[in-house]
Design a protein that fits this description.
Layout: E1 2-8, E2 13-19, E3 24-28, H1 34-43, E4 47-52, H2 58-61, H3 64-71, E5 75-78, H4 88-91, H5 93-96, E6 109-111, E7 116-119, E8 122-128, E9 137-141, E10 146-150, E11 153-154, E12 157-158, H6 168-179, E13 187-190, E14 196-197, H7 198-204
Parallel strand pairs: 3-4, 4-5, 5-6, 10-13
Antiparallel strand pairs: 1-2, 2-3, 7-8, 8-9, 9-10, 11-12, 13-14
Helix pairs in contact: 1-3
Length: 212
């Protein structure tokens, strides 16, 4: 198992592709530039099995349709944001893209609770981690010791909470309850910026207290 970080879209949001020795793959947050992403998948002889969305803000969903239609695969999203893919107001594209909008068809599978998720040969623990957005989800993959956390936790930072549905106290609780208990060497594959680790954020993140 291995994964690749590929910044895509108008904000260079981190898309991640997790793949195994059989060339099966899952895609996290295809934020844009679907042609670039699809070409990379083809060049690496990968066979995508699903698109897993940490949340449905516009910069994480821009290439959803390009990928879904190319590979005929399901899109997973938390049920709280079930209509955000179709609604430029809710996904934020009408607010931030200067008149341009991003829309996609509804997700194929809605996540409803913390649970175990099996996608082909890939197994995840799901954490509902709201605060940045109401439907934010973090996917913990034990085999690679990685949590794909979207915009919940960053290197020395946290997700913004001033967007619709955001809440600072809820976000801090999500991080403390679900991410901080993970092993300290867990890689945090976040939506923007550098990959970090749980241990690094325990000791250096100014928004988190009581873990040093």
């Amino acid at each position: 198992m291995d994964w690749k970080q590929i910044p895509l879209g108008p904000l260079q949001t981190n898309c991640y592709v997790l793949f195994n020795e059989n060339k099966e793959a899952v895609i996290f947050d295809p934020g844009g530039h679907g042609d670039i992403l699809n070409t990379w998948l083809i060049d690496n002889s990968l066979s995508p099995q699903a698109v897993l969305l940490t949340h449905a803000h516009f910069d994480h969903i821009g290439a959803v349709e390009d990928v879904r239609q190319k590979w005929n695969i399901p899109v997973y999203l938390h049920e709280t944001e079930n209509d955000w893919l179709m609604d430029p107001e809710k996904n934020g594209s009408s607010r931030f893209l200067g008149g341009a909008t991003i829309k996609a068809e509804p997700a194929d599978v809605f996540i409803t609770k913390e649970s175990e998720l099996q996608v082909g040969s890939f197994h995840f623990r799901l954490f509902h981690t709201p605060g940045h957005s109401p439907g934010s989800v973090s996917f913990y993959h034990k085999e690679t010791e990685t949590v794909f956390s979207g915009d919940v936790l960053f290197e020395n930072g946290i997700g913004r909470t001033d967007l619709p549905g955001g809440d600072y106290e809820t976000l801090i609780k999500s991080i403390n309850d679900f991410l901080m208990p993970l092993p300290e060497d867990t890689a945090v594959a976040c939506g923007h910026g550098n990959v970090t680790t749980i241990g690094n954020e325990m000791t250096s993140n100014p928004f988190l207290h009581g873990f040093s």
